[in-house]
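Blinded run. Sample ID left blank on purpose so nobody reads anything into the name before looking at the predicted structure. Input follows.
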Amino acid sequence: MDTKTEIKTLQHFIGGDWTDATGGETFAVLNPLDDSLYAHAARGSAEDMKRAVAAAKSAFADYRNTLPKERERWLLRVAEIMEARKQDLLDCLIDEIGSPIQKAMFEFDKGLTMVRAAAGMCRNVRGETFPSDRPGTFSMSVREPLGVVAVITPFNVPLIKTTRLVCNALAVGNTVVHLPSEMAPHLTVLFAQIVAEAGVPKGAYNVVTGIGADVGDALTGHKDVDFVTFTGSSVIGQHIAEICARNKTPNTLELGGKSPTVILADADLDKAVPLAARSIFMFGGQACIGSSRFYVERPIYDDFVKRFAMIAGKVGMGDLRDPSTVIAPIISERQRARVRAHIEDAVTKGATVANGGEWEGNRCQPTLLTGVTEEMTVCQSETFGPVTSIYPIDSYEEGLARANDTDFGLSSAIFTRDIDKAMHFARNIGAGMCHINGPTIHDEAHVPFGGNGESGVGREGTDADMAAMTELKWITVQL
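Blinded prediction complete.
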């Protein structure tokens, strides 16, 4: 079967049933490589979202009381079926969102780990005992699921975000309503098929495909939604935060980034430069944790730029199924216009293009900018493309100060042999994550993943989601 030419029709998954949108409407999903039609997806409405939330709420009454061994078995079965359907998932990641095969493989392996890690959460939903000042009193806490969890996932790593957030919610006894990015609905539909085949009870996991601007508020503002987790832009995150504040709905928000990397004069450039390239060019720079700012000490600045440009000029832009291909197409025309505007604005105002700046179809060449100044849009705004700026610094102290000169605070990195400076940087950088002698792009299932400021609220990960997606209840027994 030629996955490139088959036009799919995608439905909602509500209460264990596949269903069209209430009004029968659909929207087009395009292959970002050439903007050809990839699929027709059900265009969800507020009424569809109400049905999904109602199904999740109804299922929660029984699902919350399922045994740890049952949820564990279901999630491990999800992992088994994912492995059996690996090629389907890889083809979807390549053709629906334009992932090069190496990135698709990376995402599949990471997603599989997320599911298995979630299965391990099932036996760790626990409270504790407390001493009591009241004689003859046994005091304890129990940890209980919240109820209906709204999951809103992005296009860039849809399998990683889906497996982590959906499975962590299910692992601790919640039910889920999932709104995927309108640019990646098929991936979520495939996952829903896997969840259904694994035997997860009907209504525990529900998917509504649609345009976020149309139906997002109907989900995040629903009175029966007990928790919201969103990954996307800072602007939309602020909007969701305001809705959740009005309804007193707890939430986690993983938003944009302008992640800095500081490279000191004693850094090993043989290691630092390839990792620098990985931290911005993976998936064509469409990663919130990509490093779009490099601060390099002057003694090695020219050498770093030269080496970085040399690697950037060799980054593969061929067939997405060729293992040597790295650069992905930019997901949509709207986003391509943003990338073009950032580059053109910088060049117009005096920046120098050390490499790239041109386009091949819907793909932007790996682009390195020098001479970037504060009045240039690219200096402070997230580009979300394979574009990064390189700045000279005169000291570690200047590097730290300039790295912190941002409203974002997601990931960060420093390359140095000086452990004192490395640890000082880690403790003083205003970001939720810091990597010493490693790229800003890194994630694992069990770590606290997330950022500060405009980069979000709260953390994701097994332990973090356990705390966020459950609540403690205090119980006393008078003996």
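Unblinding after everyone has recorded impressions. The longest strand covers residues 137-145.
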